[in-house]
From TrEMBL:
Entry's Gene Ontology cellular component terms: cytoplasm
Protein name: CobW/HypB/UreG nucleotide-binding domain-containing protein
Residue span(s) of domain CobW/HypB/UreG nucleotide-binding: 9-148
Organism classification: Eukaryota, Sar, Alveolata, Dinophyceae, Gonyaulacales
Domain of life: Eukaryota
Matching Pfam families: cobW
Chain coiled-coil ranges: none
InterPro entries, per the entry: CobW/HypB/UreG_nucleotide-bd, P-loop_NTPase, Zinc-reg_GTPase_activator
Origin species: Pyrodinium bahamense
Length: 159
């Protein structure tokens, strides 16, 4: 990081399609006092969630479309984070929220963000995962076969 700058925390926001991830993110952006950089992952080429967030967020949104972060879009995530780090002096921010598509297996993304040997670790530190679950999907999510994988670096309780 730039001299005197500390590593920026990254939070991963995930959950099933339609669970309320974007609604939760918009609420945090509307009521928060900190400057949050937002990276939206869309499975399709049309960034619907990104547009919903951008309408409420003056700092803009980086959209990663046409792929899931756990597969093809991981390279795009690295490029987006590198761009944020490079432009941090001109557009300062206190934290990063990465909202995944509802189809994502977050384990590969968590592993990437937890890798202290990765060059991204100079500028960013993994802060945790927030999983948004709606009541209708909770039983499916809570079953062992559907529970999200965490990449082996999550510690502490999940609320």
């Amino acid at each position: 990081p730039a001299q005197g700058a500390s590593r920026v925390p990254i939070t991963l926001l995930t959950g099933f399609l339609g669970a309320g991830k974007t609604t939760r993110l918009n609420a945090a952006l509307a009521h928060g006092k900190s400057r949050i950089a937002v990276i939206e992952n869309e499975i399709g080429s049309l960034g619907v969630d990104g547009a919903l967030v951008a309408n409420r967020h003056d700092d803009g949104v980086i959209e990663l479309t046409n792929g899931c972060l756990c597969c093809s879009a991981e390279v795009d995530l690295v490029a987006a984070l590198e761009s944020l780090a490079h432009h941090r002096a001109a557009r300062p921010f206190d934290s990063v929220v990465v909202e995944t598509t509802g189809l994502a297996d977050v384990a590969p993304v968590v592993s990437l963000l937890c890798d202290e040997e990765d060059p991204l670790a100079e500028d960013f530190v993994f802060d945790g995962v927030i999983v948004v679950v709606d009541a209708a999907s909770f039983r499916k999510w809570a079953s062992e076969s559907a529970a999200p994988k965490h990449g082996g670096c999550l510690e502490g309780p999940v609320a």
